[in-house]
Amino acid sequence: MLSVLSRVPGHNGVMSNPVLGYDRVGSGEPLVLLHGFGSTRDDFAALVPDLARDFDVLSLDLPGHGSSPMIEGRPSVA
């Protein structure tokens, strides 16, 4: 699990368990893969092996998605 700040910037909710689920593979320049709203890091499963040949790939589940815990309070995309 990836440790993050207990408060998410721009959000009034607080994470009770400040960790995010993630996968990290490969080596080279860093490449962060962020999924869209309502999705998970699994969306990148087919791409990651090819990207990992040239990059240090970090794909993560945003709060409340996949294996990452939900933020307490009302979520917002603002």
Summary keywords:
78 residues; mainly beta; two-stranded antiparallel sheet; 1 helix; 27% strand; elongated; disordered N terminus
Question: Would you mind describing this structure in some detail?
Answer:
With 78 residues, the protein is mainly beta. It is built from one helix and five strands; from the N terminus they run E-E-E-E-H-E. The chain has one helix at residues 48-51, and strands at residues 2-3, 19-20, 22-26, 29-34, 55-60. Strands 3-5-4 form a three-stranded mixed beta sheet. It is elongated and about 40 Å long. It starts with a strand and ends in an 18-residue tail after the last strand. 14% of the residues are buried.
